[in-house]
Each structure stands twice: as structure tokens, then as C-alpha cells.
Model the fold of this input.
Amino acid sequence: MSSPCFGRIVWVVIPDSRGLIRERHPAIILSSNDRISVGGRVWLVGISTKSNLAPAEVQTEMQYDPRGNCRSGLREQCWAVSTWLVEVEIAEIEDYAGTVKGTTMAELIGKIPPTKVRSVGL
Done:
């Protein structure tokens, strides 16, 4: 069984990037491991397959493979949207995929608005 950790891709029902419709989306856990506890909450950044819904400067392209044979486990071209931040209960996580690390995670974190960095705990 997988567990939540920094950089883990999860599937969870969250509001869309405009905060309107709650749907199941992949998202990346941003909370540091020392802030994750059983029954607690985690900060996520949403992942979208629609690059036209957010400015390019707030998006980070994710690794993907049509069969899911890559570190992320994602099967479609998609982008993490650094302004699409949500906090959820760990119990709300429906499934776990792969991980995001290294330069991709550094690029993503660098695009998070400075006013949000503290609340997310980075």
C-alpha cells in the first residue's frame, strides 16, 4: 500500500483550477514529509491535461508515457499548475501514482507564487 510523501502523485477529488467544479484529478503532494501525519492534511498542486487553461509561466510539464511506464505513472501529456493549490485530508486521497523529483520538482516549486509558499510550508 502506498503512503503520502513529498512529491508523490495522487488521485483526489478537488475543485478545478477555477474553483468551480469538483472532479477527480491527479495532483502532487507539496507538504514536506515531516508535516505529513496519519489523519492529517496535505497541500497539493493540481495537474491538468489542458495547457490552455493557465498561463505557460505557471505550468510545469510532467513526464508521461501512454502505458504509464515512467516515474510519474502519468499516461497523458499534462502540466502541474503552480497556482492551483489545494489542501485536503489524507483520507480524501483515492489512489497513488508515481513521483516527481529533481529538476521537475524544483521548477514547479520555483513557480509557486511567493504569497503561497509560506502557507504551503515550502
